[in-house]
Amino acid sequence: MSTVTFDSVQVGDLLPPLALAPINRTTLGLFAGASNDHNPLHIDIDYARKAGMNDVFAHGMLSMAYLGRLLTQWVDQRQLREFGVRFIGITHLGHQITCTGKVVEKFEADGEQRIKVEIQTANQYGDVKILGDAVIAL
């Protein structure tokens, strides 16, 4: 984690990207256990196929956790004031996700200097899977 200050950040600055290993069944199983989200769409291929999918796919919250990691590798988690996402695509097995972010606003609120960043996940083909934003106190 680097030391980020309000004065050192400019609108348009990019966060250091977070590139992750391809999504695999082990990751999905481990996340299911850690999150207590055992939805069979994410861990049971037979169930997923009965639901019309070709195979299991990643939990949306796994990708949101990756975005949280993007943010907290840049600033201390105690600096986060808001963090929200919108799920717009399915992350399939084998997708290699990269998380990125961009500073879009600098402002003051509640006596703090803050920035707003737009964040997203995309696979190796450039398909965006999650869009979101976060507000960070600097």
Give the topology.
Elements: E1 18-19, H1 25-35, H2 45-50, H3 60-72, E2 80-87, E3 98-109, E4 112-122, E5 128-137
Antiparallel strand pairs: 1-3, 2-5, 3-4, 4-5
What does this protein look like?
InterPro entries: HotDog_dom_sf, MaoC-like_dom. Pfam families: MaoC_dehydratas. It comes from Pseudomonas cavernae. The chain has three helices and five strands, in the order βαααββββ. The longest helix is centred in the middle third of the chain and has 13 residues. It starts with 17 loop residues before the first strand and ends with a strand. A five-stranded antiparallel beta sheet has the order 1-3-4-5-2, covered by helices on one side. The protein has 138 residues and is α+β, with helices and mostly antiparallel strands. It has a single domain, classed as Thiol Ester Dehydrase, Chain A (Roll). The mean pLDDT is 97. It is elongated and about 55 Å long.
